[in-house]
Write a structure and sequence with these properties.
Elements (H helix, E strand, L loop, with lengths): L1 H22 L11 H11 L1 H15 L1 H18 L4 H30 L1
Length: about 120
Amino acid sequence: MKHKIFLWLPRVLASIYILLLAIFALDVFIPGQTISYYIAAFFIHLIPNFILAVILLIAWKWSKTGGLLFMLLSCVMFYFFKNPLPVNIGLFGPLLLIGVLFFVEGYLIKTKERK
């Protein structure tokens, strides 16, 4: 039972995080712009979502590798974004948690396979 929680919790949290982050891409729709502006701006705003989706696909297959990628991405974002600490924790802390959960899940599966 414990393994099922660690199997699905990081996947569900990562999917929710990606969907919530996609909501921020909707701020490009302001009145008075052309359709080409909307399309270009919308896809530019969705680039982080595409990157996270690729990392999620990697993590779905290889939990430890995906967990390390999520943790690395979280640390890189903490370093490059010069927001106040509470803002960075709110934005990128969930990525760190998701990475840790994927890594723990990968470790538990590997330990379970050894037994």
